[in-house]
């Protein structure tokens, strides 16, 4: 959620609005803490957004609470299904697996890389993140961050990397062009589709005759896109991204999660 500040210049003069890039308003550490509170009450079934924020520890669904919920979405910890907020598989792994489990460690890293602005900053700085003052200046000068909000963002960003155990940026091997593309998509507030090298054709579910998949750019086998139905005159697609080459056990795990998700819908 972008940070917005309205400043009144002079009586009778129109106020100016400063819009920062889209970013999580709380860091990964606090997001997991809020997620834990939510999960202990709502479990895998989740809850409507206005109830979900109360489970997260807020009294009502006010601006701060909704911003925190948006942060959980940006980290890929919750998703919205049938007007309910539900924990993702990534979230369940983080909460339920032991700290020393490598799958939990990977889930934390994936969460830290999920927000496009986090992804981009890490990709731009493979030799290490600049010191606070230098990074703040870069963000204000080149990424249109609000000077009043940038310090809090930098603090949350760096703490998120520590919490996720990310210290060596170079080993992540992130693609800067991909990160910039994701950042542009996030700024435009449209669904993120990650381009890459090779092609993986979309699968066609049963009873979907007459619906043609949307054209896709060449992309690695870690991402698929498939039509799942219609909403009035609009074809609805599901986009699934795997963080490595697709393997049979990944598909089996996804199938189990979708079967569970179906039980939560009316």
Short description:
It is built from ten helices and six strands. The chain is α+β, with helices and mostly antiparallel strands and 266 residues long. Strand 1 (4-7) and strand 2 form a beta hairpin.
Query: Could you give the order of the helices and strands?
Result: EEHHHEEHHHHHHEEH
Helicity, as a percent range = 40-55%
What is the end-to-end distance?
Answer: 29 Å
How many β-strands, per DSSP? 6
| Major β-sheet annotation | 2 strands, antiparallel
Low-confidence stretches: 1-9, 11-16, 187-221
Shape: globular
Structure annotation, total helices = 10
Rg calc: 20 Å
Order of strands, main sheet, comes to 1-2
Mean pLDDT across the residues is 78
Structural class: alpha+beta
Would you mind describing this structure in some detail?
The structure is a single chain. The protein is an alpha+beta fold and 266 residues long. It has a domain at 193-266. The chain contains 10 helices and 6 strands, in the order ββαααββααααααββα. The strands form 3 sheets. The chain has a two-stranded antiparallel ribbon with strand order 1-2. A two-stranded antiparallel ribbon has the order 3-4. A hairpin with an 8-residue loop joins β1 (4-7) and β2. The longest helix is centred in the last third of the chain and has 16 residues, at 248-263. The protein is globular. Mean pLDDT is 78; it is low at 1-9, 11-16 and 187-221.
